[in-house]
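Input (structure):
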């Protein structure tokens, strides 16, 4: 049975895959109000509108003296008639013909139109000698200059960073409406896959995918349930999927979705929901299986450890972000020089594991020696992916290529 991710039979580009995902998925989690101290990295679920001006009042940007420029006599000497410190407004405003000692952040006395900075002034008994050439508003921070009352300071869908919490506090907020964490269940499949820690039976390998995929999900803010390693047995996989569907917003597996006789994830998912295969025109990466298990979104990643990480970053990540209610901020791609030669047959989009290297004022991408989709050390060595478009031919050293950092691809 085909489902909501049904696709044509041809190869699908990454861009087409992303466009399809964006129309088919929305937030899968509810919202909750959390205090600012707990909101870091949460996905904001409301537009935050400021009910006040920030700063709320005109105030001094310097320690110095506030005065009215029209009052300045030829000798630029004014009597100091008051003092205004931060948090202590001057009642009554600036008396005519006087200057007021003022400190950074102190509200401007009504009537003053400039502040002279301390370093430019000279104190002379009860008077101050002010500098020439100050313009209207010099060294004054205007009310609302940072945020005007009624402005949206933070849009729904962003992942909250320290500065976002700061601006929310500046508008008087103590708590924010955020998305509840996405609950994701993760398991690996394969009779040859073993849990690290125990001696390795002959013919077996240790599980890596549960650790990379689980950590990638956690890095995006999901709450991950580790469901362990499932054997290549249809009934066991089917029962585990059904149980996972009951308490999760997403199920993610690796392995068992190609077309071999031992690939039992496909029939297990089909027995409980629907499954579609997206044959992506990418390397590394095989078909990615997308579907649902009793209504819960399902992502079946390939088994090869590098393919797991790359298809997660390119396809599962945007999908997970949509389920989390996060807006797509897009990926920053750096144009860099290829520090390598690479033969590329147009047709499939290829992602090379790469590192950035400085050479004087040039920035070069170095490529890992092997393209194998099972060579996990390539991921450990690299800092990001060089994206070779479908249409591109061979790459010669010194040609420009695009680099996307893991910092972008994992958040
Ligand atoms: P599969 O798609 O199940 O045929 O797996 C493809 C390849 O990835 C095989 O060589 C598997 O042994 C390997 N593989 C599958 N799952 C894992 C895993 N969890 N950890 C490490 N390698 C895996
Ligand atoms: Mg397998």
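Output (sequence):
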């Amino acid at each position: 049975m085909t489902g909501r991710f049904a696709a044509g039979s041809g190869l699908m580009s990454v861009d087409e895959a992303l466009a399809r995902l964006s129309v088919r998925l929305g937030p899968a989690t509810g919202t909750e109000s959390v205090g600012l101290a707990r909101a870091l990295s949460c996905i904001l679920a409301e537009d935050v509108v400021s009910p006040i001006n920030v700063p709320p009042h005109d105030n001094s940007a310097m320690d110095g003296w506030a005065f009215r420029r029209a009052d300045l006599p030829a000798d630029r000497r004014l009597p100091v008639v008051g003092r205004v410190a931060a948090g202590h407004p001057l009642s009554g405003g600036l008396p005519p013909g006087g200057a007021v000692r003022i400190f950074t952040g102190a509200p401007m006395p009504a009537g003053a139109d400039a502040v002279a900075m301390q370093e430019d002034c000279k104190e002379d008994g009860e008077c101050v000698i002010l500098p020439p050439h100050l313009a209207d508003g010099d060294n004054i921070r205007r009310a609302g200059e940072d945020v005007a009352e009624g402005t949206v300071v933070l849009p729904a869908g962003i992942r909250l960073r320290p500065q976002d919490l700061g601006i929310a506090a500046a508008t008087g907020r103590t708590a924010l409406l955020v998305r509840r964490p996405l609950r994701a269940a993760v398991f690996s499949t394969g009779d040859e896959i073993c849990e690290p820690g125990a001696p390795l039976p002959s013919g077996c390998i240790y599980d890596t995918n549960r650790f990379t995929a689980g950590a990638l999900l956690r890095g995006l803010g999901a709450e991950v349930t580790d469901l362990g390693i499932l054997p290549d047995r249809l009934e066991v996989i089917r029962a585990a999927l059904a149980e996972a569907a009951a308490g999760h917003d997403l199920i993610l597996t690796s392995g068992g979705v190609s077309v071999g006789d031992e690939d039992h994830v496909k029939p297990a998912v089909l027995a409980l929901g629907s499954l579609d295969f997206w044959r992506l025109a990418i390397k590394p990466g095989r078909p990615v299986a997308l579907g649902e298990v009793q209504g819960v979104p399902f992502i079946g990643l390939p088994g090869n450890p590098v393919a797991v990480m790359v298809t997660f970053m390119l396809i599962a990540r945007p999908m997970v972000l949509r389920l989390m209610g996060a807006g797509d901020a897009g990926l920053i791609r750096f144009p860099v020089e290829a520090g390598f030669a690479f033969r590329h047959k147009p047709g499939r989009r290829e992602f090379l594991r790469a590192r950035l290297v400085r050479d004087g004022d040039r920035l070069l991408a170095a490529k890992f020696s092997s393209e194998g989709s099972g060579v996990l050390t390539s991921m450990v060595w690299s800092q990001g992916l060089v994206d070779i478009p479908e249409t591109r031919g061979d790459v010669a050293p010194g040609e420009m290529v695009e680099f996307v950092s893991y910092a972008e691809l994992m958040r």
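Notes: Residues 189-190, 255-256, 262, 303 surround magnesium ion (ligand 2) (CB under 6 Å). Residues 59-141 form a domain with the Molybdopterin biosynthesis moeA protein; domain 3 fold (CATH 2.170.190.11).
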